[in-house]
Design goal:
Blueprint lengths: L15 H10 L10 H5 L19 E2 L10 H4 L3 E2 L1 E3 L2 E9 L9 E9 L8 E6 L7 H8 L4 H6 E6 L15 H9 L7 H22 L8 H14 L5 E6 L1 H12 L4 E7 L8 H26 L8 H17 L13 H9 L8 H12 L4 H11 L11 H12 L6 H14 L4 H6 L2 H4 L20 E8 L5 H10 L3 E9 L9 H13 L7 E2 L1
Parallel strand pairs: 6-7, 6-8, 8-9, 9-10, 10-11, 11-12
Antiparallel strand pairs: 1-2, 3-4, 4-5, 5-7
Helix pairs in contact: 1-14, 8-9, 11-12, 12-14
Length: 530
Amino acid sequence: MATPRHSSAYPGGVNARTMVAVAAMAALLPAACGTSADLIGSDAPTTPTRSTLPESSSPTTQSADPPSGDLQQFYGQQVAWQDCGSFECATVTVPLDYDDVTAGTVDLELRKAPATEDEPLGTLFINPGGPGGSGITYLDFFLPDAPELQSAYDIVGFDPRGVGVSDPVTCLSDGELDDFIAYDPDPDTAAEVRRATALVRKLGRACQANTGPLAGHVSTVEVAKDLDILRAVVGDQKMHYYGASYGTFIGATYAELFPDKVDRMVLDGALDPALSIKELNLQQAAGFETALNAYVDDCIAGGGCPLGEDKQAALDRIKAFLDGLDADPLESGDSDRPLTEGLGFYGIAVTLYNQDYWTILSSALAAGLAGDGSQLLQLADAYLDRGQDGTYNNNSAQVIYAVNCLDKPVDVSVPEIQASESEYEEVAPVFGRVFAWSLLGCSNWPVQSAQKPLTIDADGAAPIVVVGTTRDPATPYQWAEALADELESGVLVSRDGDGHTGYHMGNECVDDAIDAYLVDGTVPINGLQC
């Protein structure tokens, strides 16, 4: 997810439980008398774990093409699918270190919705982004809008290594994570800089100490290699894949490593892998600012906007509100957790992922400007999947660091960040400094990856469909344009609209194009405008 310190340059999608939470919040407003647990609700999907899977008689799956050599034991494993509610679940073992398969293993958890047709095309793997999004949970939210896909495919969501229930990265306690998240995301005094630096160093050391060797082996290259093992063990000769947000980086990396294995692949809300982490970060700051501007335009046009009727004054008011939270956090209904600047940013940012949530943002801002931070705190908790009891429902807020900092390490000093503030504020006057300071996290990361960065063009792959949305906050539209151009077989589909990603976002043109491609193999016209 795109957040001040722990998203930096990588986009991640807001996870599926967050979408439930934010949507449920609409029923609570304007009273705002619930907590984050009320937002999620008892009917939200739960993630099955190995300990809760019943013994079942579902058939095993034999690998499609076990190779010779050290990886044969992984490609050749038989997978026993077990009943888990209305789905089937399985565990697949992959090597911890692809350079030394004797160094240990990682267990990946999979969840499958079997195809409703007797002779499916194969398996469609789905990933919601992050890094840190659970494909297992995502399956519940992907299926209702995808009846044609479920007819044609077994649809499988998986938790990548280190994520969710796939041998998760473990770092801070819940209380320590509360402190980390609530702290000032754009420090402006020497004391605040020291505190921010200490917090990110503590996170990195905790991940290293509590996770062990796996902390150095959660790179996207390794996830892509895992994905090829998953393809083989479900019995498919070719890969069918839908990835959203950071999931596009997984897909593009897979296509670079295994171009001959690509069949039908959709990369929605694309990351541009050719950019440096600093370039990604600056452009993402601009993306969120674009989305904020679109929200303000809509708020004013609708009448009764709590920010007033002048656009620039409204944007200035949001910035002043966030700046004020630094010195004077708002009461939130929880005496131990006032609304800080960091939490206020999260509360605003989550609503920019979907235009349907803009009315919720208006209500929360109206309350915040009146001195009540409870609604924005609820939104921040929904963003971070924090429950009413103070526990976090997944490790996404921490594993995002572990992945990003391995993929694109950065060495930037505090003076360099301070010198860059004006550049960030030029493209993002409200959010710019938050994104400038997000580079601090990976600058202090104690773990390095042995995986080499890739130049991605996927030469030799079948057509790959890249979807971009014109006012996407987390993955700016130019990233989709760039990735489609960088891929030798890239095909661009554009959605003119707001919110994050394009498929299943209310645009029939996009949905029809993706369904026709995945189900019938009909490649969209490159440059299709929807």
